[in-house]
């Protein structure tokens, strides 16, 4: 696989590849086998970034360079994969200001590298707020013959024209905006679904997030914040069969929190005879590890989907692991469909 954006998610993913690649019976791995593939079957073929602090370094070293703040749980050995200059088609996000390497590659140049390295899947892990850059990476993926995982909120898997191109070239695609294994969005959705399933009428709800790390910092830009808020709010609302007043989003960046995040949830509902129900919950997690299992699952599922002739958008993968999929499903339905398709060999 190829990785674009050697940030906190990539740093954690690399540690997971090393740790579970040696022994996938170790605790913490969600699914040992997905689509017939184990973690040990995944190799990193190429890596790209636009941050001069990472370019030219082995990806194992670049993973822990500033501004990355991912916790180091595993000592990574050099992988022999040098971080190369990537594509930049937007203005730099906040965390990159003053640190962008000159001489951005074109999509075609990047595609040539991916093709030469025989990469099967490209992971787009760049920061939110770079729509044009994400589309450039999608184009590179198409030219290189790679399946694509779009972890950003950029409209890739929800763009019919792009989806058609992936389908026409016999490539599988998943996105948009990765949903963590047990992060704020999926927890909020699950909470509302449980209340509804118990016959409680949800009236209104909100979720507020505070965290550290570059992704949280970049989300403070008003345009990016608005997009992320809309994506998360829509995802949460889709869990109920009726409309409620709800909103969600990042409220602030706290540098000393590192890669950690605190999410606060408030729900107002009513039960029998209109009796009031009020709920206040805090959830504290780490962003990188929360993405690790989801990334490992989707990479393997995309490889399997392509081999099985599932070209273009793979609906059950998108619905189970992304906040803004082309076809929305409730959390339990999406996970059940993913399990039926990809976990039978587990």
Write a concise synopsis of the structure shown.
With 346 residues, this protein is α/β, with parallel strands linked by helices. The chain has helices spanning 8-22, 59-62, 107-116, 131-144, 160-168, 184-197, 213-219, 222-237, 287-307, 315-321, 331-342, and strands spanning 2-4, 46-49, 83-85, 121-124, 147-150, 172-174, 201-211, 245-253, 260-270, 276-286, 312-313. The chain has 2 domains: 2-179 and 289-342, NAD(P)-binding Rossmann-like Domain (Rossmann fold, 3-Layer(aba) Sandwich); 184-286, Dihydrodipicolinate Reductase, domain 2.
Instruction: Tell me the radius of gyration.
Output: 20 Å
Unreliable spans are none
CATH class of the largest domain: Alpha Beta
CATH fold title of the largest domain: Rossmann fold
> Reading side by side through the largest sheet, how are the strands ordered?
3-2-1-4-5-6-11
Structural class: alpha/beta
Written as H for each helix and E for each strand, in order along the chain, the element string is: EHEHEHEHEHEHEHHEEEHEHH
Helix fraction bin: 25-40%
CATH architectural name of the largest domain: 3-Layer(aba) Sandwich
Number of strands: 11
Please report the distance between the alpha carbons of the first and last residues. Answer: 22 Å
* Count of discrete structural domains: 2
Main β-sheet description: 7 strands, parallel
Give the CA-based shape: globular
Number of helices: 11
């Amino acid at each position: 696989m190829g990785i674009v954006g050697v940030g906190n998610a990539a740093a954690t993913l690399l540690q997971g590849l090393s740790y579970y690649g040696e022994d996938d019976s170790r605790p913490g791995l969600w699914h040992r086998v997905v689509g017939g593939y184990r973690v040990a079957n995944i190799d990193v073929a190429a890596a790209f970034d636009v941050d001069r602090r990472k370019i030219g370094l082995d990806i194992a070293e670049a993973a822990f360079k500033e501004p990355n703040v991912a916790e180091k749980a595993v000592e990574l050995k050099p992988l022999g994969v040098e971080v190369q200059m990537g594509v930049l088609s937007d203005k730099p996000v906040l965390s990159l200001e003053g640190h962008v390497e000159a001489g951005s590659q074109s999509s075609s140049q990047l595609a040539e590298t991916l093709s030469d390295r025989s990469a099967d899947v490209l992971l787009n892990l760049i920061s939110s707020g770079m729509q044009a850059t994400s589309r450039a990476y999608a184009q590179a993926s198409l030219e290189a013959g790679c399946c694509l995982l779009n972890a950003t909120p950029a409209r890739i898997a929800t763009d019919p024209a792009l989806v058609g191109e992936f389908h026409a070239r016999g490539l599988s695609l998943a996105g948009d905006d990765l949903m963590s294994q047990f992060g704020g969005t999926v927890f909020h959705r699950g909470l509302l679904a449980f209340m509804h399933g118990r016959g409680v009428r949800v009236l209104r709800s909100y979720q507020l997030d505070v965290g550290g790390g570059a992704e949280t910092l970049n989300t403070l830009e008003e345009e990016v914040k608005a997009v992320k808020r809309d994506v998360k709010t829509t995802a949460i609302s889709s869990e109920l069969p009726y409309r409620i007043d709800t909103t969600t989003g990042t409220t602030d960046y706290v540098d000393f929190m590192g890669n950690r995040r605190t999410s606060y949830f408030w729900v107002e509902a009513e039960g029998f005879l209109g009796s009031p129900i009020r709920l206040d919950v805090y959830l504290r997690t780490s962003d990188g590890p929360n993405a690790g299992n989801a990334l490992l699952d989707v990479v393997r599922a995309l490889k399997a989907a392509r081999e099985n002739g599932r070209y273009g958008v793979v609906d059950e993968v998108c619905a189970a692991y992304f906040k803004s999929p082309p076809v929305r499903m409730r959390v339990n339905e999406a996970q059940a469909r993913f399990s039926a398709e990809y976990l039978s060999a587990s």
